[in-house]
Known about the structure:
Strand order of the largest sheet: 2-3-1-4-5
Bound molecules: adenosine monophosphate
Radius of gyration: 16 Å
Number of domains: 1
Largest sheet: 5 strands, parallel
Strand content: 5-15%
Number of helices: 8
CATH class: Alpha Beta
Shape: globular
Helix content: 55-70%
CATH architecture: 3-Layer(aba) Sandwich
CATH superfamily: P-loop containing nucleotide triphosphate hydrolases
Amino acid sequence: MRLVLLGAPGSGKGTQAARLKAALGVPHVSTGDMLRAAVAAGTAMGLKAKAVMDAGQLVSDDILLGMLEDRLAQEDARAGFILDGYPRNLAQADALDHLLARIGQPLDAVVKLKVPSEVIVGRCEIRFKAEGRADDNPDTVRKRLDIYAEQTAPVADFYARRGKLQVVDGVGELDEITARVKRALHAESATAGN
Length: 194
Ligand code: AMP
């Protein structure tokens, strides 16, 4: 299964991907987690990315594509992946299409977790207090939501035009949301005749 999870910051992509990876038997590939690991390791790329991330902006497309390409070349991604945090703009969606075509691994499904902005702001405040992520402070969250609306929302339309997008209600109990995503994936594979 090759799946892209879309949704605003705080929509629950990471939480749901972590729950789905065992069920689907594929790794959770989070570009945010990979960047945070690079920052923690103090690599040159991490140092460059840190200021951009702390400001709630997007790290450059070139860096992300190189990082993703390396990750998808690893053994465990051969059976598929759950992509969380990528693509975040139309250029990345296009680059992903080309990359996956080149490695012969086209996407099976794209699921968007739909969560109202006021719920997102509340969730990020809780995460800010619990985890202390600099980019979860309320001002930066507002900035990230603006960037999401401007740059990432069109990515959902990009997949919708191709008949690939499933929209799932991302509000409620975690188990129920996981069940909704699984139902959407079953519906998708039934339609695709798999
Ligand atoms: P996330 O954990 O997915 O919310 O990502 C945290 C931060 O990492 C984002 O606010 C961006 O600064 C950066 N980031 C993660 N994924 C991407 C991406 N696909 N393109 C650009 N920047 C990204």
